[in-house]
Design brief:
By secondary structure, this protein is of the alpha+beta class. The strands form 2 sheets. A 5-stranded antiparallel beta sheet has the order 2-1-5-4-3, with helices on both faces. A two-stranded antiparallel ribbon has the order 6-7. It is elongated, with a radius of gyration of 22 Å. It starts with a strand and ends in a 5-residue tail after the last helix.
Amino acid sequence: MWEWDLKTRALTWDAQMYHLYQRTPQTDTPPLHILMDSLHPDDKARFEEALQQTIRHDAVFEGNYRISWPNGEVRHVRAAARAARDKDGNAVRLTGVNFDITEVKRAQEALSESEAFLDRAGRMAGVGGWRVNLKTNSIYWSKETRHIHEVED
């Protein structure tokens, strides 16, 4: 869990946040610097824009971002937060949580690779596949099955 005081710009992390970023609370580096230094360069602008939207428009901050650990390993993080506002409606504090979703991302990537491999193998062999969902009474045909039966996508 984390809390960001928008007036003082002080970001406070609990022990789990330090663990998530592979840092220790005893470091002299403030959490805000750790966060910004850890964000993947390709995700930094999107992250900052989502934060600004939350601050300006009372939107819920949420998104998936990549971070780099000190050893260079890239991890995937899911972040979610809400803004606390003063009586005039100005955001004064963000409170949120981050979750490591690296294993979920890896499983999704492995599934995508497996599906692509199966699709290529089916095309090369001229073999299609299908399945029936008895609960929804729906039928799924692979691309190759549709091609074999000359059915449009």
